[in-house]
Structure formats: structure tokens, C-alpha cells
What does this fold into?
Amino acid sequence: MKEQTRCSTIDIAGRIEVLHARYFDHAFAPHWHDEFAIGLIDAGVEQFEYGGAVHRASPGDVVLLNAGQVHTGQGFDERGFGFRMLYVPESTFREIAPPSRHGGSGSLHFRTAVLNNVHARICLLAAHRSFDHGATVLEVESRFVNAFAYLLTVASSWRAPTTSTAAPPTLVEARDYLMSISSAMSLSQSLLGLPD
It folds into this structure.
């Protein structure tokens, strides 16, 4: 079975990366993103380590990962898993949320890694489909904003600013270098038809 990956971007109060993938044998080593990751499971079950626990997400679940949090990802069994993932900067949520919610300087935090909420899934899936099917920019933006606003209501909170615990610049550079090597190797293997 062939693994598939499709990447694109959209701009909604910031650059949002969109990843649509189907993996069977691929496993993500521990890593993190500077953006918030919001995923829908399309097929199979994803198992991932996050926040000191092992989580499983199935079709119908929404995966919510906070920015800067280390996590893994792989199929739970031989069926692998398929997913749609959005990498959303905090600036996008800040534009959507009223100032009274974040107080101007608070930081966003999703309260759960796996959300089982039918309305959240419907909203996110409608947004993805509008993007996939070439809907107007206004419709795509409206659907994503609607989905994000709903997630802010049911699954998030804003925390008061804390002392920065950002990774040292050298560690960030090393991470970026390793990720670029990993991406290049995956692309080479895919083009040559080699297994991961």
C-alpha cells in the first residue's frame, strides 16, 4: 500500500499549513511545531505520545496539539492511519477570539489532546472540503474561521503570560536542520519507491 502526502497553505490572519496524508508504516519521531496542530482522523487509528501520556484518535476524533509541545505519531495497527492536519499560528486564533477572552497578552492552550465532538468535526471537515474543492476564498476563510471559533469555545483556554521557556536558538537550529534532512530523505525514498 502506497503512503500519500499532500501539502498546501492558506492565509487566514497568518499562514496556515495544510497536510493531508495516509501512512501505513511511517512513524513520527518525537518533534514539535511552533504552531498549533489541529487534525482530523480519516482512517485507521493514530497513536501518539503527548503530554506524558499515550493517546489514540479514531475517525470522528479531532486531535488538538498545543504549540511547542513534543509529540510522536504512528498507526496503532497494520491499517495505518489517514489524517488531515492544520498547523495554525496563535495569531490566527488571536484575531478570531474577542480581546476579552485572551486579555491581550494571554497564550492559547487546548485542554485536551483528543476531542470527540461531532459539531467540531463537521465544521472542520466542511472547511477542508471547501478548500479541497476550490471554493471561493471568502467561503474557505468563513468555514475555517467558523471551525476555529467553535474550537476556541469548547476546547481552549487562555493562560496568563509566564516566564519564557523557549528553546535556545542553537537547539531550534539543530531541530530545523534535522527536520530538513528527514524531509529530504523521505522525498528521495518516495521518488525512488523505497520503503521508509
Observations:
- The chain has a mean pLDDT of 86.
